[in-house]
Automatic annotation (TrEMBL):
Residues 2-59 form the HTH lysR-type domain. Gene3D superfamilies: Periplasmic binding protein-like II (3.40.190.10), Winged helix-like DNA-binding domain superfamily/Winged helix DNA-binding domain (1.10.10.10). This is LysR family transcriptional regulator. The keyword DNA-binding applies.
């Protein structure tokens, strides 16, 4: 029988790089660390770590066991939190991930209709798609709004289900006083010498869309700033010192900016609702109602009137290997 302390010890050794550091991390004595490690190795009949003058590293068997150990420890932490939440609120809690622009546009009205705080307890976690999807897969989140570049492929995973809520074309965001702002449609080649405000991540959908379209137009974008902060991006564009890529529904009308289509195809941002495929009975009804309300909210989204091909088609599978946008 496995002892959870053995799994925690293996995790600590992997994180800290030595038995001594693992002992300090877990507030154990080093002999206790060694005891639990050796017991785990005997149980598995495999050597899990190798020590040298430079520290302790995991063997191939140790790495494999670590993956399972961390999954077990994560699930136990989630289970403990679920039980505590049930005791505190008297009912299940939905932990939902979201990103800034869709969260601000869709969720306030949706959560108000859902009865948040009265019939359903919802905890929101803001983040980027890659981090949120990892939390979905390890059970830390029950559902999330995620975005990616339309056309990205998904890897089937029975643990998650997903539904496309919106598809919206990327646009060029310019300051209202930019020389090209008066044009209805812009040739991207005319911005070959412009300074661009870009994402910090090459996995971002907007960044990949920009690089693809710019490459087709024959140039590599100059970088003025790399940021995911929408307020900062808008401020720089409004001041006329840079241009960027955006979807129209994410344009902040408090700033003097415009969003224009291009001669070139910039691609589309896809927004999806992703949830646990087999939720606990106490959460299933709330998740189904949340999905229904999100679909209703997406139907009246301004993006739907922009030729964005907003769709409401069920899709099975996970986004574990989907690049974020």
């Amino acid at each position: 029988m496995f002892d959870l302390r053995q799994l925690a010890v293996l995790d600590a050794i992997a994180r800290t790089g030595s038995l001594a550091a693992a002992a300090r991390d877990l507030h154990y004595g080093q002999p206790t660390i060694s005891h639990h490690l050796r017991a785990l190795e005997r149980h598995l009949d495999s050597e899990l770590v190798v020590s040298s003058a430079t520290g302790t590293t995991l063997t191939a068997a140790g790495e494999l066991m670590l993956e399972h150990a961390r999954a077990v420890l994560t699930r136990l932490r989630v289970a403990a939190r679920d039980v505590a939440e049930l005791g505190q609120s008297g009912g299940p809690v939905l932990r939902m991930g979201t990103f800034e622009s869709a969260g601000a546009r869709l969720l306030p009205q949706v959560l108000a209709k859902l009865g948040t705080g009265r019939t359903v307890q919802v905890e929101l976690v803001e983040g980027e798609p890659l981090g949120l999807q990892e939390q979905l897969l390890d059970g830390s989140l029950h559902c999330a709004l995620l975005y990616d570049l339309d056309g990205d492929t998904s890897v089937t995973d029975a643990a998650l289900r997903q539904r496309t809520l919106e598809r919206e074309p990327f646009r060029i965001m310019l300051g209202a006083d930019h020389p090209l702002a008066e044009r209805e449609v812009i040739d991207l080649a005319d911005l070959a010498e412009a300074d661009w405000i870009r994402s910090r991540s090459v996995l971002e959908a907007s960044e990949r869309a920009l690089l693809t379209a710019a490459g087709a137009a024959g140039f590599v974008p100059n970088t003025l700033l790399q940021s995911e902060d929408y307020s900062l991006v808008h401020a720089f564009v409004a001041a006329g010192v840079g241009v960027g890529l955006i979807v129209e529904s994410a344009v902040d009308t408090r700033y003097r900016v415009v969003a224009r289509p291009t001669v070139q195809d910039l691609g589309m941002r896809r927004v999806r609702f992703v949830a646990t495929a087999t939720p606990e009975p106490g959460r299933a009804a709330a998740l189904a109602r949340l999905e229904e309300l999100l679909i209703e909210a997406a139907e009246v989204n301004p993006a739907a009137s922009m030729g964005s091909m907003t769709t409401f088609v069920d899709e099975r599978g996970s986004i574990a290997n989907t690049s974020p946008s």
